[in-house]
Design a protein that fits this description.
Two copies of one chain form a homodimer. Chain A is mainly α and about 110 residues long. Chain A has helices at about 20-30, 35-40, 50-55, 60-70, 95-109; strands spanning about 45-50, 75-80, 90. In chain A, helix 1 packs across helix 5 (about 95-109) and helix 3 (about 50-55) packs across helix 4. Chain A binds a DNA duplex (30 and 30 nucleotides) through helix 4.
DNA sequence: GCGATGCCTCAGCCCTCCGTGAGATGTTCA
DNA sequence: TGAACATCTCACGGAGGGCTGAGGCATCGC
């Protein structure tokens, strides 16, 4: 990459717009503090909805709304607890998370 | 990190909320396609406002509004062209960009 | 079975943010 | 000097997204 300013006085009108759709979609998920906190918490292992609600000081249906968006994006999925199936434990899909991370890093690299 | 579900039937109410303020602030800048495209374009070297407007198909005052937010965040700064001072060339502050990237990666890692 | 618990979905209100237009500043050129 | 250009700032109107409450489904303990 060139850190120099271009010599020409004429603006370059042939510059192409980069493709940032994946990075923007990921940023749209991270822009909410609750969703960002959820993704960070799940980096340390599975967490159930009521645990997230308690840790983040939010109501459970609010957490559930945000989890729906993360689920639709494929970043997380839920499994029921073996001995107490009332609890839904969420965990990340690390392959999708890695792709999302790569898209963000590509913009800021 | 543990990928296993916890054995206890009692939810863990002692989980702490992570600090995601820096990542959220960065995501708030990347969530707009124009700002994300600007940051990606500037990775290849300085670009002036009219060049961004032409490449992205947006009006110059719109680009300028977005550049103001990136400037306030310290991610970019402007220098006038030496031989034609009408043109403002923007470039990234790579130290700030690296910090923003690190904050995002920390949430998704 | 019945109540309590954990979680989900949906509609509604509210707030924030983006694009636009107008006006202002600074620079170049004739 | 005046016109054209490049850019900035601000106020306004509209669209999108978050929080809430109500209602519903599934599971566990008594």
């Amino acid at each position: 990459m060139t850190t120099e300013l271009p010599d020409v006085c004429e603006p370059r009108l042939n510059l192409r717009a980069p493709d940032v759709t994946d990075a923007v979609a990921t940023a749209a998920l991270l822009v909410d503090p609750i969703r960002a906190s959820i993704l960070r918490m799940l980096a340390d292992g599975p967490v159930c909805v009521c645990e997230m609600a308690a840790a983040l000081g939010a109501r459970e249906n609010n957490i559930s709304n945000h989890l729906a968006k993360l689920r639709d994006a494929g970043l997380v999925h839920a499994t029921r607890h073996e001995t107490n199936a009332r609890f839904l434990y969420y965990q990340r899909d690390e392959a999708v998370v890695a792709a999302a991370r790569a898209a963000l890093v590509d913009v800021l690299r």
